[in-house]
Amino acid sequence: MRKPFSHRSLSICAIVLGTLALFGVSAIAADPAQSKAADAVPAETAAPAPAKDAIPVFSLKMLDGKTVSNDTVKGKPSVFVFWQTACSLCRVEVEDINQLAQMQAYKGINIYLVNVDLNAAKVLPSYVETNKISLPILVDPDYTLGPKFGINSTPGAAFVNSKGKVVSTTKGYGGDGISSLKAGLDAIK
Hints:
The chain is an alpha+beta fold. It has a single domain (28-188), classed as Glutaredoxin, CATH 3.40.30. 32% of the residues lie in helices and 19% in strands.
């Protein structure tokens, strides 16, 4: 006969669940159909991870219908920030990169917000207006571009220099996340 759970086992389960809730599980989208991207994750490292590969081949539509591709960014330092509206860490990263983009030090860098919401055309216009987002938004509901950079979850960012080389990537956002963004931007200026 199986023994019922002890009070100790139940206490351990409660502690584990409480810890998960405290450290970001609540940042996961309540509606799993919202996005095909993996769940939001906290930052893995304080500094962007090094990468040396060429920018992957891509072509995505912007929110306004224009197309952005490898040809568009060729010869220009570029950042691709992967996010979704239901992800709280993503929203913080978008706010931070939106503020950094206004700084003179980062003028001349193409910064693209790559949104992976399945219903982007419906939710983004009001979100952009409400949150005063001034950066161009690429729409990638099938989350095709992030994995090409090795970024399989949101939030994340890829930093590409003017020679078309991926200088670094970040996965997750938290802790000193804005420092990681600044380091990535500084590396491609």
